[in-house]
Design a protein that fits this description.
Layout (H helix, E strand, L loop, with lengths): L17 H22 L4 H10 L4 E2 H8 L3 H13 L3 E6 L2 E9 L1 H15 L2 H4 L5 H15 L5
Antiparallel strand pairs: 1-3, 2-3
Helix pairs in contact: 2-3, 3-4
Length: about 150
């Protein structure tokens, strides 16, 4: 069996396969976005949790499921968000074994600031000729690759 020749590195990234380009672009955007999140003392996981909580309080377990992470991961995320004053944890009056998580006013404000920044990311949109088209293609790719959920 013959193996295809790897793309030449002399040409730079223009000759890379699409998957490698997507992976590299994602890492570069993620690193830049991490700096923005760090300025607000929020992680990627924390931002997703805040987004989910804007629709209302949830049990920590339901929040983990909605964010597609383990209970243990969500526990650490909620702990960090609570320390930052972005969420409150309370015992569920209907079931004292459950913890309900609620977004605070500070959490809503921070989420709104980050959402505005994310939607108006000049560093990304300035270099893309059709940001809306790129977004549509990425959504299509994610939908096509996403594993069927419960």
């Amino acid at each position: 069996m013959t193996h295809p020749e790897p793309p030449s590195t002399a040409d730079g990234f223009e000759s890379w396969p699409t998957g490698r380009l997507l992976s590299t672009a994602a890492r570069l955007v993620e690193h830049a976005w991490e700096e923005v999140l760090r300025e607000h003392d929020v992680t990627h996981a924390g931002l997703i949790a805040l987004h989910t909580l804007t629709s209302g309080a949830r049990s920590q377990r339901d929040l983990a499921r909605a964010c597609q992470v383990t209970d243990q991961t969500m526990s650490r995320t909620v702990e960090r968000l609570a320390r930052g004053g972005f969420v409150q944890r309370e015992t569920d009056p209907a079931d004292e074994r459950r913890v309900r998580v609620t977004i605070t006013d500070a959490g809503r404000d921070t989420y709104a600031q980050l959402l505005a920044r994310e939607q108006d990311d000049a560093a990304l949109t300035a270099v893309v000729s059709d940001p809306a088209g790129l977004r549509r293609m990425l959504v299509e790719l994610i939908r096509a690759r996403r594993a069927p959920g419960p």
